[in-house]
Amino acid sequence: MQHAIFDDIVILLFLSVFAVALLRRVHLPAILGYLAIGAIAGEHALGVIPDLHSIEIVAEIGVIFLLFMIGLEFSIPHMLSMKGIVLGLGGAQVLLTTAIAGGIAWATGMSWQGAFVVGGAAALSSTAIAAKQLTEQLELHSRHGRIALGVLIFQDLAVVPFLVLIPIFGAGGSESMTVPLLLALAKGVAAFLLMFALGHWVLRPLFHAIAGARSVELFTLTILLVALSAAWITNLMGLSLALGAFLAGMMLGETEYRHQIEIEIRPFRDVLMGLFFITVGTQVYLDVLPEIWPWVLLTTFGLVVGKGVVVAATVRLGGYETGVALRSGAVLAQAGEFGFALLALAISNSLLDPRDSQVLLTAIVLSMALAPLIIRNNGWFAKRLCASYLGGREQQAHKLADATAEKQGHVIICGFGRIGQNLCGFLIEEGIDYVGLDVDPLLIREAHDAGEDVFYGDST
Asked: Which of 44, 282, 318, 321 is the most buried (most CB within 10 A)?
């Protein structure tokens, strides 16, 4: 029995290698394989892995590392510049989605407390899937990528009030809600200030000293310690583990060590994220699916389409172009891992009956399974639904992104005049792939006629 966890992990790794290799051959996201493994190998199907509780703890570390790495990409000045997205668009999206989804649930006969939980679960997207997919597609710093990340940050913060209110509703609403909500807000502010202080006065000097030791092993251990300690601190404060990791990464993102930190932690993140998605797949009860599948499909369709429309409308009303709004809606259309936490808490407080909860849980998993495909094709959806999208510079940028999507180790030639063309000749002789940028339409047309990969773009 003492080796049970080890046995389970070996089995899951074996299944993961097989599933991911198969999906890569057919050019599908690996996340789909992890979710399928969880659904098939879980205790409600084949029962290969009867108890995933211990593995869930390990898998949660994968989410911590993912948010830590995302934090490295966003410094404090960058985050302050996004406050309109985080508070404005994020707040509007959560409120609107909660109200609409909760209203629909209440109209079907659910209690208002249960409907509130359903609305909250629908409002929260999957940070793990959206951030991972945007990073792989090199879209994290695009306009729709930054909007999606800003909204996701607000959603992670919004989890706390939901977790505070659900037990109060379960107790019949006899407790005052004002004090717990103010306490949750104070905790969020305190967490940010604490991480800011630690980052400024502790983390930078710490990494200066560690780098001076010239030990790769010590450097990696320090990264793991910082990421997990930050998550542990916010968890003690009643906030999410992922939020602490994100804040710690954001503080280190201002240091000169950010790129090496990212390189060192990536292998841990990728492996553990796979285990996380497997645990998500176990939420599907295949033994009861034949009885509830029509409701699952209807709920999933309403969730993905309805939420995508709400997000797109919110972003459009926020002053962004229709195409950017549609892409943001596609990225955030799924439900997320925090929805499981809300539903589990609601069930334990007798706010949802088992059948409704299983329909919702399965719909959340299905929406997460569809998410990688939807996010991968977010540009396609925008072009099909908005005829005016991708005009001018955006069109050139999109063409450039398509042209370089499959390139590896290529050179970008900034300016395709005489010197650029000579450089192009040298690269061809050496067998090195390239892409050219220039602002002269005539030169670009001539280069295209000659079969060169040259696009309009101001490289300055």
From this structure: 282
Statement to judge: residues 349 and 452 lie in one domain:
no
CATH number, domain of 432, equals 3.40.50.720
As for how many domains the chain has, the answer is: 2
Residue 284 sits in the same domain as residue 158: yes
Task: Show the domain range for 426.
Answer: 393-456
| End-of-domain residue from the set 368, 385, 402 | 385
pLDDT tens sequence for the chain (460 residues): 455 667 777 887 888 888 888 888 877 777 788 888 888 877 766 767 656 666 777 777 877 887 788 778 766 776 777 788 888 999 999 999 999 999 999 999 888 889 999 999 999 998 888 988 888 887 887 888 889 989 998 887 788 788 778 877 776 655 566 777 677 778 778 888 888 888 778 888 888 888 888 888 899 899 889 989 988 988 888 777 777 888 888 888 877 788 788 888 887 777 777 777 887 777 777 778 888 889 999 999 999 999 999 999 999 999 888 888 999 999 999 998 788 878 877 887 888 888 888 899 889 989 988 999 999 888 888 888 887 665 545 555 565 566 655 566 788 888 877 788 778 877 877 778 888 887 776 677 767 666 677 776 666 6
CA distances from 284 to 128, 149, 166, 293 (A): 18, 27, 23, 11
CA distance 115 to 119: 6
Please give the distance of CA 163 from its chain centroid, rounded to a whole number.
Answer: 21
> Of 347, 368, 385, which residue is a domain's last?
385
User: What tokens appear for 195 in the block?
Assistant: 């991480």
How many C-beta atoms surround the C-beta of residue 189 within 10 A? Answer: 9
Are both 336 and 406 inside the same structural domain? no
DSSP assignment, residue 45? T
Q: Which DSSP symbol is given to 257?
A: T
Give the ranges where 199-336 is alpha helix by DSSP (H). 204-212, 216-236, 241-252, 258-281, 289-317, 322-331
Side chain identity, residue 196:
F
Q: pTM score, two decimals?
A: 0.71
The CA distance from 222 to 120, in Å, is 37
380 and 397 part of one domain: no
Which residues, other chains included, contact 129 with Cβ-Cβ below 8 Å and sequence gap of 6+? 31, 334, 336, 368, 371, 372, 375
Q: Are residues 354 and 418 in the same domain?
A: no
Q: What span, in angstroms and rounded, lies between the C-alpha atoms of 305 and 359?
A: 17
Looking at the structure, tell me whether residues 276 and 173 fall in a common domain: yes
